[in-house]
Every structure is written in C-alpha cells, then in structure tokens.
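About this split. The held-out portion is used to measure sequence recovery: a designer receives only the structure tokens and must propose an amino acid at every position. Recovery is the fraction of positions where the proposal matches the reference. Here is one held-out target exactly as it appears in the evaluation file.
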C-alpha cells in the first residue's frame, strides 16, 4: 500500500470525531433490514472475509439469492454513494433463474472501510483485488458481472484483470468511460453552481452531508427527493431510502476517498475506460445499457467496435430512464438483464458463437421489450444534471 494513503479520508471531519458513526452503523443495519424485508425470494446475508487486501481484516457485506440454482451466477456491483439495497427493485426478477450475488463495495455500505491509496491507479487496483479475493472466498469459478455507474467502471477493470472469470460484462449507465470534453455544454445554472461551490471540489463529494449530522437524511431528501419516488412501488415509508443513503455515507468515507482519487471533476475519470478497452479480452461479450435521459456521456457502439472489432458489443437504450436505470424503469431493466443472461447461458451450453445466438434471440427480445410500457415520469427528466456530484 502506498505510504500516502488517502489523506482526504483522514483529514475530513469524519463522523467518528462527532460520536455519530456507531449510531449510524446501527441505523444502517436497521434500515437495510426494512428494505430487504420486501423481497419475496429467499436470501442470506453475511460478511465475507477477504484478509489483508487493503486493511488488516477486510470484510465485504454480501447478499445471495436463489442459492440452489445451477445456472451461471450474476454478480451486481452498485455505484458511488450506494449499497446493495439499491438493487431491491431488481433482485426478485433477475434471481428467478440463477444465483444472484450483490455486495457493498469495500469502503462503502456495511463493508469495512480501510484507507485506500491516494494514487488513482493503485486505488482502482486495490478495489479490483478486493473483488477477486471476495470471489475466491465465495468460491465462484465464473459469473456474469453487472456494474452500475462507478460499479461499471470497477467491473470493467476487474474483467480486464481477470478475464477467465467473467462470462459476460453488463454495464448499466457506466461512469468513467468517455474522455472529458474540452468544452462543457452545461446549462448556465450549473455553471453558476460550479463557480459557487468550486472550493468544495477538494473535499470528498459527500462531506457536506456528513457534516450535517442528524439532519443529513433531511438534506438528502431535499437534494434527491426523486429517489423516494423511484422506490415507492415497493417501499411504503418515504424516508426509508433517504435514510439508507445517508447511513451508507455517514461513516468513515474511505471508498469515497478512493473514488475522489480516480475522478476528474465529478462526471469523468482521470483514466477513462474507453482508452483501456484494448486490455479487455475479446472473449468477453460486452453489453452496455444507457438511460435515455441520463447525464452520463455515452460511448457509441461504433467507438466500442473500433476498440473491440473482434468481440461481441451491444448497446441498449432504456427509454424514459435517467442515470438510475434499474430504478427508473425496473421492468425494462430486469427483462433486458434476464435476456442477456439467458443469451450467455445459451452460448455457453451450446459452445456456440454468442453473436449468432444474439441474432436468433434479438427478435424475441424486441417483442418482449415492446410489450413493456416504460414508466413515464417527467420528473425523471429533470434529473439530468441535478447536483451531479451526488449521482454517480
């Protein structure tokens, strides 16, 4: 580990210094249980020990659904400032036909929070190695890997490092792919906010929320009131999701500091993944799902095929969805993921070419997709650029 481990994480006025962290940890357990109680699928949760990967005794909080299925497992990686409960609208459906694992990334949620390196590439590699040690401990030989946003960035890095383990890489509105444009075409109000809050760019993105202490959940509810609406179909109490977000992020922000070291601004990575796709094995099929109204800069299918001319590449646009496509349009998202997983199984079982399998499945997929009406909420379109630093 680098000797200059995340000074940002240590110097910030962290909750431990306010006597708030232990209370927040217990509240996180409580609110997580409340969210997972809505699931219909049998599941188990536990801490997976991964040894001294970054810290001394690192552990990754894990959920497993449909453990008995023999189909290829699906592993879910959440985005920045999130946790495994963000998949609660998806668990039951995507786990009908296969085992589904989801984790709190190291440094986030209920997983342990070691100090990562402040070097962007080293911090990224530490994240990747924590995933590999987790895989070894849960004894997964290979799996379909799905990452949302920052989780998509890490999923791609993991697949590049451990290609034999990933049967298909699915990226949901992935952060950190495109290069930062020289000129940003932003609304005037966003530019004004950027100038106003420029001094805060040297802090971790959620430092303000932690500094708010007990009023943090209220602050999040004002900044991200759309999240309660997204999950309202299964979670009755409006404040549950905002409490979950707050308590996921009110403890020692080491995962956040790792992200801080990798980012350039809030919306771009220092080392964009598009420039490193040549390191991703041609044998790994790649499917990217983008929200129609997302603020994320899309990578085009042409760009991907230029980088991976001999590989399976597919881009799907989820209609009427923003960045949180799995919550904005859960039915469309779930069906798309199920179809990709089924395609992967078919190609694997027949030892066939996934491109040929995809051509055969495509008509069936389009017919199914057309039957699912997108949930059309104009409020979701407002989401595009609203406080980008809290949305990755």
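Reference sequence for scoring:
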């Amino acid at each position: 580990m680098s000797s200059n481990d995340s000074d940002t994480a240590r110097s910030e006025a962290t909750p431990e210094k306010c006597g708030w962290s232990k209370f927040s940890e217990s509240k996180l357990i409580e609110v997580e249980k409340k969210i997972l109680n809505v699931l219909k699928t049998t599941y188990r949760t536990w801490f997976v020990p991964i040894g001294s990967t970054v810290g001394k005794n690192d552990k990754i909080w894990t959920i497993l659904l449909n453990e008995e299925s023999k189909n290829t497992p699906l592993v879910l990686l959440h985005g920045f400032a999130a946790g495994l409960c963000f998949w609660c609208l998806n668990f039951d459906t995507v786990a009908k036909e296969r085992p589904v694992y989801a984790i709190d990334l190291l440094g986030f949620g209920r997983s342990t929070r070691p100090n990562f390196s402040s070097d962007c590439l080293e911090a990224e590699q530490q994240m990747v190695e924590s995933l590999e040690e987790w895989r070894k401990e849960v004894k997964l030989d290979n799996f379909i890997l799905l990452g949302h946003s920052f989780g998509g960035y890490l999923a791609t890095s993991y697949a590049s490092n451990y290609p034999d383990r990933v049967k298909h890489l699915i990226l949901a509105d992935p952060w950190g792919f495109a290069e930062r444009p020289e000129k940003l075409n932003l609304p005037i109000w966003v530019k004004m906010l950027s100038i106003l809050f420029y001094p805060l760019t040297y802090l971790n993105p959620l430092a303000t929320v932690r500094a708010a202490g007990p009023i943090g959940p209220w602050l999040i509810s004002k900044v991200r009131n759309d999240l309660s609406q997204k999950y309202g179909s299964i979670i009755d109490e409006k404040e549950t999701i905002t409490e979950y977000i707050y308590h996921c992020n009110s403890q020692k922000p080491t995962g956040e500091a790792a992200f801080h070291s990798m980012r350039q601004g809030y919306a771009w990575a220092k080392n964009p993944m598009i420039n490193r796709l040549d390191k991703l094995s041609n044998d790994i099929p790649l499917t990217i799902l983008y929200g129609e109204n997302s603020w994320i800069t899309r990578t085009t299918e042409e760009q991907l095929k230029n980088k991976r001319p001999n590989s399976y590449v597919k881009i799907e646009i989820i209609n009427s969805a923003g960045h949180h496509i799995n919550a904005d349009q859960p039915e469309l998202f779930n069906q798309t993921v199920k179809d990709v997983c089924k395609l992967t199984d078919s190609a694997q079982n027949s030892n066939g070419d996934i491109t040929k399998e995809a051509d055969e499945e495509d008509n069936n997929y389009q017919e199914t997709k057309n039957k699912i009406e997108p949930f059309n909420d104009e409020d979701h379109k407002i989401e595009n650029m609203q406080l980008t630093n809290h949305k990755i």
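Annotator remark: Residues 1-20, 377-392 have pLDDT under 50 and may be disordered.
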